[in-house]
Amino acid sequence: MTQRDVVFPAGRQALYERNRYSPAIRSNGFLFVSGQVGSTEEGSPVPELQAQVRQAFNNLKAILAAADCTFDDVVDVTVFIVDPEAKFEAIWEVVPEFWGNAPHPTLTAVGVTWLYGFEFEIKVIAKLPEGGKG
């Protein structure tokens, strides 16, 4: 089996190792990022929905940066939302702070009943920069 090319953001490697998963893997010119939630450095949920969404995006931004990517490199997004009917609009007020102008990546939103104490999770696939690793 080929060794996985794992990307760790600064300061959070112990959290990923404790939970036994990789934050992101470089493969065939793409970066596959695990679901990111609005967690503090020790892993607990940030209180308040919009603050939690911002933290999830900031956690995602740190992983993208560790792979020399930005939100502009993201091509596919999946979000998981607890009670999306009640929370979707509040969440989507935060999204433009990170995505910027259209065209935006593809998006799949999934309503879920449980996210380990979180209300929002985002996972993405990004195109690695030309000439970069992976």
From TrEMBL:
PANTHER family: 2-IMINOBUTANOATE/2-IMINOPROPANOATE DEAMINASE RIDA (PTHR11803), RUTC FAMILY PROTEIN YJGH (PTHR11803:SF44). Coiled coil: none annotated. GO terms for cellular component: cytosol. Gene3D superfamilies: RutC-like. Transmembrane segments: none annotated. The lineage of its organism: Bacteria, Pseudomonadati, Pseudomonadota, Gammaproteobacteria, Pseudomonadales. This is Enamine deaminase RidA. One of its GO terms (molecular function) is deaminase activity.
